[in-house]
Amino acid sequence: MSVSHAVRGPLVLEPLIARVSATDRGATASFLGTVRAGPDDGPVIRIEYSAYEEMLDLEFDRITAEAAARWPGVAVAAQHRLGTVPLGDASIAIAVAAPHRAAALDACRFVIEEAKRRLPVWKREVLADGTTAWRDNEGGRVPGRPTPTRPST
Amino acid sequence: MHAIRVRCRLFARYAEVTGEEVVEVEVPAPATVADAIAALRERLADGHRLPARPLVARNHAHALLTDPLADGDELALLPPLAGG
């Protein structure tokens, strides 16, 4: 059964782990990506994530299917948070279970790398003075339209 | 020769710079993804602010600029990705 991978609210890893756990899977690996502000990022007060949600779900399903084909016996559960995400909170959560540890760890790495490369998700930083910037996974930072500093969801 | 109608979707920074999220364009058949993007850039007042060769998705899957289009396709212009 396909479920939505987009979540508006805090991500919780335990339900994802429960979803992939099984008695014939002896290894579970998980990954949490959390929102951070680096030393050169300025006074970021919040990060806003948006997505092409119909494609986000399908692309996550495709990545999961690819992992299952590449590592037999692997099960994957993953979610991406959208909307306003405070610094320190998780923006992506992944749980992978497999019969053995090598497959669990390798498949978990595969899922996060493919997610960063392929998911149609965008990130806008809001700074304390109301200026904004679009950030991408290649290190790009492009100024955006100024916005009120009040959080939006 | 018939026309192919394509529903173009714009996200994030591309929606911000054009002020549009959904735009219908028509291109003469046969047409590729690149043809629809050229028509979209021509159609919008701020279309020149969209890249001529953006990352694109066709019907919810990553696509190439050379991919053929069919009537009723949904084309999405994807700004540089930032998931994870």
Low-confidence stretches of chain B: none
Total domains of chain B: 1
What composes the largest sheet of chain B? 5 strands, mixed
Which percent range describes the beta-strand content of chain B?
A: 25-35%
> Numbering strands along the chain, what is their spatial order in the largest sheet of chain A?
5-3-7-8-9
Q: Please provide the ordered H/E string of secondary-structure elements of chain B.
A: EHEHEEE
Estimated structural class of chain B: alpha+beta
For this structure, the CATH topology of chain A is Aldehyde Oxidoreductase, domain 3
Identify the CATH homologous superfamily of chain B.
Beta-grasp domain
Q: How does the overall form of chain B come out from the CA principal axes?
A: globular
Fraction of residues in H or I helices of chain B: 10-25%
The CATH class of chain B is Alpha Beta
The total strand number of chain B stands at 5
CATH architecture of chain A: Alpha-Beta Complex
The string of secondary-structure elements of chain A, in order, is EHEEHEEEHEEE
Domain count of chain A: 1
CA distance, first residue to last residue of chain A: 28 Å
Count of helical regions of chain B = 2
Overall radius of gyration of chain A: 17 Å
